[in-house]
Amino acid sequence: EPEVTQTPSHQVTQMGQEVILRCVPISNHLYFYWYRQILGQKVEFLVSFYNNEISEKSEIFDDQFSVERPDGSNFTLKIRSTKLEDSAMYFCASLNLGVQGQYFGPGTRLTVT
Amino acid sequence: AQSVAQPEDQVNVAEGNPLTVKCTYSVSGNPYLFWYVQYPNRGLQFLLKYITGDNLVKGSYGFEAEFNKSQTSFHLKKPSALVSDSALYFCAVRDGGNMLTFGGGTRLMVKP
Questions:
Q1: pLDDT, tens digit (0-9, with 9 covering 90-100), for A21-75
Q2: Which of B42, B99, B85, B3 is nearest to A95 (CA)?
Q3: Is the N-terminal amide bond of A25 cis, ω within 30° of 0?
Q4: Which residues of B fall within a CB distance of 8 Å from A105?
Q5: Predicted pLDDT at A99
Q6: pLDDT per residue over A6-32, tens digit each?
Q7: Which of A45, A108, A109 to mutate to test the interface with B (most CBs of B within 10 A)?
């Protein structure tokens, strides 16, 4: 069964550094998403991406965040200047048709020190 | 704004017994409802969904969920629990948009 993959599985960075989290969605999917889960808290929506542009974003997704689909297979989340509170598990998801369930990757654990 | 509540942080059940994991939701339009399961060090795996039609939805691994519009609930059920069902379960809702809103999760512990 096709899967969403994410790299790295764990990223440690210093406060103020830029990080890029990478995702390879399922190949025929058209909608792409990033979610995050701070330890012990709910999974929170960050952003959705369709047709090479952001279709929806949450209030968490401020100017420090950006997404890109640079080459038709990868889908990246960039945090320009990380803060301690950005430490979380970041999940990528993709979707083919609008009413189906989103398929999630295994997540990248980001630790900001 | 849409929201999801999972009132139980943990549900304990003996293997072979039926299980229920509760979920209630709030959404302005017609709800699209989902259950996901998370095993340790794994991503969220899609279990089942309700979009429209029959209120009883069957999903993966023998799980089912019942949509109850009057009670705004979408409880997850399984007639006979397995130890391997032990995991973290998330209920989620969408309105017509893209954004999934998740509940806080319920840890299911199935004991032999």
A1: 999 999 889 899 999 999 888 899 999 999 899 999 999 999 999 999 988 789 9
A2: B99
A3: no
A4: 43
A5: 59
A6: 999 999 999 999 999 999 999 889 899
A7: A45
Regions of chain B short of the pLDDT cut 70: 96
Cβ–Cβ contact B111 with A under 8 A: no
Q: Determine the Cα–Cα distance for residues A43 and A89; give it in Å rounded to an integer.
A: 9
| Residues A91, B43: C-beta atoms closer than 8 Å | yes
Edge to edge, the sheet with strand A19-24 lists A5-7, A19-24, A75-79, A65-68
B99 → closest Cβ in A6, A48, A106? A48
Kindly state the tokens that stand for A61: 């997704």
Cβ pair B43:A33 closer than 8 A: no
Q: Does B58 touch chain A (CB under 8 A)?
A: no
Q: Do A56 and B99 count as a contact with CB atoms less than 8 A apart?
A: yes
Q: What is the mean pLDDT of chain B?
A: 92
| Mutant choice from B98, B102, B107 vs A, greatest count of A C-beta within 10 A | B98
